[in-house]
Specification:
Pfam families: DUF5807. The protein is α+β, with helices and mostly antiparallel strands and 143 residues long. The chain has one domain. It has four helices and eight strands. The chain has a six-stranded antiparallel sheet with strand order 2-3-1-6-7-8. A hairpin with a 2-residue loop joins strand 2 and strand 3. The protein is globular, with a radius of gyration of 15 Å.
């Protein structure tokens, strides 16, 4: 089982995951020993602080800043965290809507908080589109 599949199964709550589209990576060979290669790019799963630093180094984007910017716009991020559907794609069909980056973390089930969090571990995902749009999605692991 890869770190990617373990993360998706909710087995790596201390880690963060990020997807880098192949067009957004200048030296994909440098990721070979750290990343899982997927159809359109690479997925890295790293311990929390290291993962946030690595994401910022790779993308030039502060992941916590991304989360704040993206929270106001809901999108549809694929449940394998390797792509998404940009929420403005239909309004701007002439633009490139390739998902350049996805950053995600999981929050463990917390019945005291209620709502989604009472149902199970929750994945929080944030995406950056080639058009510049930043958006978010969240769901209960396994649903």
């Amino acid at each position: 089982m890869t770190k990617h599949t373990e993360f998706l199964a909710g087995e790596r709550p201390e880690d963060v995951l990020f997807f880098l589209h192949e067009d957004a990576v200048s030296n994909p060979g440098a990721l070979a020993e750290y990343a899982d290669e997927v159809e359109d790019g690479h997925v890295l799963v790293l311990p929390g602080d290291d993962g946030r630093s690595a994401f910022q180094s790779a993308t030039g984007i502060d992941p916590m800043g991304l989360a704040q910017q993206a929270m106001g716009t809901e999108g549809d991020i694929h449940d394998d965290l390797t792509g998404a559907v940009c929420p403005v794609a239909e309004e701007e069909p002439e633009s490139d809507h390739t998902t350049r980056f996805v950053f995600a973390f999981a929050e463990e089930q917390n019945e005291d908080v209620g709502g989604l969090y009472a149902e199970g571990d929750v994945v929080h995902a944030y995406a950056v589109c080639a058009c510049g749009e930043r958006y978010s999605d969240k769901w209960v692991v396994g649903e």
